Amino acid sequence: MASKTSHKEFMYHRLLRVGAKTLNKERLLINLLPKLKHKGASPVTIGGKKVEDFESLYEHVFAESASFDGFEEHSAIVKKWLKDAAVDVLHRGKGNKEKFVSMRPLTLNAYKASNRKYREDYGISEQVYSMMLAADLELDNTGRKITEELKAYLSEGYDPDSDRVRTDDLELLETVVAMVVNPLGIDKADLRKTVNPHAPLCIGQARVLSADLMGLLAYKDAIPKSALLKAMVQMMYLHTGLFILRLGPLLQDLVERRELHPGCRSCPVQGDSDRGFHECPFQIKLQMDLGLGYASNLAKLSAKSVEHHERQIIQYIENHFYVRNLAEFFEKNRFVDENGYSVLDLFRELSDHENYMQDVHFSKRLDSFMEEMDEENDFLSLKVEGVPYIQSYVQLINKQYNGYYFHYFKQLMSSLFAKNEADGIMAQSGGYKKYLLGNELLDTLVHLVSIQPVEGGGYRTRRVRAEEFLTWMRRRYGFYIAESVFDAEEPELLQALRYNKSLFLSMLQDIGYYQPISDAYYTQWLIPRYEVDEVKGH
Prior knowledge:
The protein contains 16 helices and 13 strands. The chain is mainly alpha-helical.
């Protein structure tokens, strides 16, 4: 981190790697591919042609038209099909504004055919990769690692020696993507640009994300690749959003204690456990309203749940400023190894350097900030006698910039929770917000609850009751559907929760997972759509 930084500077990858921006789901996987391929390193391309726009794409496809009967004769139809099915497009449907972003991420090398200018993902792929890597690093050599398993899934037909993909047994779309990228040159890992493997503050979220992705991969022979990858991106976004919500109270506790919470030192959360975050000291609770509109009592409670999390984000921004400035001080003075330290190391070393930090470094930072502010007198009131300089400085920059970053964090959370989309958990109309559960995400969650690891390796589908599914979602993701987040037992609320549960069961029925026989508990079974019996060694 540079020693001379703007007071407004915010990014600090040891806390959060994704930027507070509006994200696009299409960009995550295409940027994740080279990280999987090169173990976190960025690629350096050696020779070959480039595909960065529609013209060069069509040129490559029709150069291989002999491999596809009818492509040459029906070029206009083929171009439309390519744009609709095989390509990520910026400003899709807006005529001349449409820009080629990349080929669909259906093969390991798909990122080679992309326009780097338009495929920016604002760090979400690095955030996801670092969480997967953190979970992998806990495993011994016998454990199945999600970065390796996901790479293998995307490497069908891939030959590492030639850096090309064999197309013999691929589906049509995968074949087209492979034939476009195969002539584009070989790339190597640039080890100077590698994702730093420092673990996230919440290792439990990393474990559960990796377990969910591994569970979805168990369906690789049953679900089409494009659909399975879409489900994986849903979960990557969801877990990143939940990680940010959990990071808020976790970081607040760390700043107050100056050490990790006792309940986090040996994290009780295990990815494959049905108990999820049940023993976590920083549980996330989302009150979900599955009904229409925003006027019902439950919708208002759900809105209250959203507001609670937004207040925690406001507090997180201030604590983020505090930790980032601590880190800048420690790095500038070489009190920590710039590449190898963790956030916890800052607090372990804090007492040894606190006097110098207060009297020299942050007194200068405070003076510098005051000189830059036009409305200096308004800020002078925040400097209280006896308050450490770092606290005064952080209070000042937080007062100036918190609103700015909170605005963009709301955009980020809307993206991660897929606001107003079928695979999301958030809805908004005007100034009203609430948590809900989209049909497409529910479909993915049923796949996950219906799969379980078996002893010796592998996965097998299982039958789960609807009530067990509700408990599983509450413990794993903090989704409160048939129960209240708030301590209230009014008859109207209990009736609303029963109605919410009936809506949930209707959703399951609508997407084909549930057939009510009676109201009896023992008859309320979910019906898995696919059967998996993948046992290693058999």
